[in-house]
Amino acid sequence: MTEFRSPYPLPAIPDDMSIPQFMFSSDFRKRPNRPTNVPFFIEDDTGRPIDFFQVHERTNGLANALSIKWNIGKDDIVCIFSPNHVDYAVAIWAVHTLGGVVTPANPGYTTDELSHQLRTTEARLIITHPSSLAIARSAALAVGMAIDRIVILNDNSHLPDSEASVDDLVEFGARKPVSYLVQRFKSGEARTRLAFLSFSSGTTGKPKAVAIPHYSVIANIIQMATHYRLHDPAWTDKRMNPGDIAIAVLPFFHIYGLVVIMHYLLFCGMSLVVVPKFNLADFLRSVVRHRVTHLYVVPPQIVLLCKHPSVKIYNFKHVKFCMSGAAPLSGELMKKMAEVLPNAVIGQGYGLTETSTSISNVSPDQKFGTIGSAGKLIPGVVARVIKHDGSFAAEGERGELMVSGPSIALGYYKNPEATKETFVDGWVHTGDEVIIKDLEVFIVDRIKEIIKVKGFQVAPAELEGHLLLHPAVIDACVVGIPDEYSGELPLAYVVLNPEVRQHSRDLKNASILKTAIAQHVSDSKVHYKWLRGGIEFIDVIPKNPSGKILRRVLRERARATKVISGDSGFEMRPKL
């Protein structure tokens, strides 16, 4: 049996600490030392710094208020439905301090999508942003949650009187006697006590809640720190140092932003410039204004940095590290990034929600990552590659990647059937076909049916089920097609009912119908699930004798005919 693993040993991982105890504690000897003048967070618009003591005090004040007003405690689940915010981590750690569990939600969700997450997790409270309040209210009503269980993160807008604000709660909690006992785990308890229910599409159907314990997040922080030799005094070329500044523009609700950016970089002693939403012009100005040293981005942002003319007017010599993740990055784009960021280490990383998070990162001794590589396996990860015949692949042979290690999630929350498909005897079936050579992971193809759009997972079965609700559609198959900007885009092959099919033979009628079907999806689904790859009418969906869709047949057909986004007349890509 061939197994692949890093030769660097991990230090002991504490299994009796919660995430906030680990983040605030000075007892962990391997932690880089953060100077007192280095803030945790920097508010992008105002430049306001928020230091360790302010974050700690706000966390405790909010925890006390949540305990007093709503009796939030052990195993209670709180949904955070918001774009990035300087109090996002405070909200997380306040819930964790009480022994509760956080389920982060995409602020772009529709009412139906947020309602699904609230029902699945049985959340007791929603912490939201004013921009997401309308959806939060409608979803709360849909699941029978009282409106007074919505808390609003403060911004510069006028807040409604009907909901409590985080600022008010922090002040309230600070002046009241402490009403809670800080959750302290027994030895080994952090391995099973839930910290997050982060949603992932799994293999089929609606998104599933990945059950992530405190230990998994702490383990992955230590794994990444060990990979980059942060506590090796002999290693002088450290990639992350106290006082470095990263721009936190990737969403905190996504596992990449949640674990790698929010938790790992803060552990490194870095400051995070918190950006609520990506806009290229604002992003460029922020990187220069705050003298950002570290960029953590995804391929769509790389495309803009490489090709948009406005980038040329800025000097990015102060940027010393650029990591791309969530989807593969082409060698051509990596080379162009080296021109944009002449002093930066440039490479890729790879991970899953189910592995919480990183599996591989660009090597600490490389200035420029190996073309096509998603980085080297980080310490603690054990990898196997399984060939199509079920045998174990040797180095350089392709097959499905299976991984094990200390950061692996517990499974899908209250979904044993889905858990059995992905989590097998301590191993996660990634669904990615890879080649491993010199401990570097090269992603070759997707084995599972999941489509990756800008790093977000889209389950074809979810879209197919929704398409069948349209009166004109009697069968459907959704596949992913390559796209330079988004990685992949969903394309729908649709079988029309006989009456409609006759009318759709006219090109004008067909175009109108395709637009209506696309709108049927975009009205109910978050933006990255929209059918931006187009809609193609087809007489029959190919299936095997047992009735399973032969998705690979249509995926190959789409690529062979060079179907591209925009062909159906309803391209909805945001303007640059």
UniProtKB/TrEMBL annotation:
Any single Pfam family the record assigns to this protein? AMP-binding_C
Where is each AMP-dependent synthetase/ligase domain found? 29-413
Instruction: Tell me the superkingdom of the source.
Output: Eukaryota
* PROSITE patterns given in the database record: AMP_BINDING
Molecular function, one GO term: CoA-ligase activity
Residue ranges constituting the AMP-binding enzyme C-terminal domain according to the UniProt record: 462-548
Protein name (record)? Amp dependent CoA ligase
- InterPro entries cross-referenced by the UniProt entry: AMP-bd_C (IPR025110), AMP-bd_C_sf (IPR045851), AMP-binding_CS (IPR020845), AMP-dep_synth/lig_dom (IPR000873), ANL_N_sf (IPR042099)
Q: Which UniProt keywords apply?
A: Ligase, Membrane, Transmembrane, Transmembrane helix
Q: Which residues cross the membrane?
A: 245-267
